[in-house]
From TrEMBL:
<dbReference type="GO" id="GO:0032259">
    <property type="term" value="P:methylation"/>
</dbReference>
<dbReference type="InterPro" id="IPR046977">
    <property type="entry name" value="RsmC/RlmG"/>
</dbReference>
<keyword id="KW-0489">Methyltransferase</keyword>
<feature type="domain" description="Methyltransferase small">
    <location>
        <begin position="32"/>
        <end position="196"/>
    </location>
</feature>
<dbReference type="InterPro" id="IPR029063">
    <property type="entry name" value="SAM-dependent_MTases_sf"/>
</dbReference>
<dbReference type="InterPro" id="IPR007848">
    <property type="entry name" value="Small_mtfrase_dom"/>
</dbReference>
<protein>
    <submittedName>
        <fullName>Class I SAM-dependent methyltransferase</fullName>
    </submittedName>
</protein>
<dbReference type="GO" id="GO:0008757">
    <property type="term" value="F:S-adenosylmethionine-dependent methyltransferase activity"/>
</dbReference>
<dbReference type="Pfam" id="PF05175">
    <property type="entry name" value="MTS"/>
</dbReference>
<keyword id="KW-0808">Transferase</keyword>
Amino acid sequence: MSEKFQKMYYDENPDAAHDLHELETVLLGQKMTFTTDAGVFSKKAIDFGSQVLLNAVHFPENSTLLDVGCGYGPMGLSLAKVQGVTATLIDVNLRALALAEKNAVKNGVTADIFQSNLYTNVSGRFDNIVSNPPIRAGKDVVHGVISGAYEHLNEQGTLTIVIQKKQGAPSAKNKMTEVFGNCEVISKEKGYFILQSIKI
């Protein structure tokens, strides 16, 4: 697999030839259907880390949620569908965003979906932020997800991310503790750590 291909899912305009897939899955006990494509993250199945994160969180109905690096939408859309959050989904990848918009309609979910490189186009604050950060984009991007979250959370708001131990969970935990003053491992499974900080 070429380095160029590995990087496509966090490029603004992936140039991989289209290869559409329909995924039928169950997330949070709810049947969901997603259209995926080449050039987006985890096109052939819902990423296991995203599933571990979803199973670890429960947000109040009508609370506001920001999904950073949403891809084609599995986390933000399923949380909106099942837990009734008011979801905003952002990604730098325009192909992924187009899919997320289609998947919102396909699953009967209303969400605010737009392009943003990290938090550059995000205004306002949210009750909760979730992210399955693009590890291959590098440590600076992962830490950017963490450090930028603080200013975009309401008081008592949470940042929850999933990251594999071997891909930098200890470093991410240290960064979250540095930014928020706290970080808890709320779940872990098969090497995936779910890290959560609270804005206090």
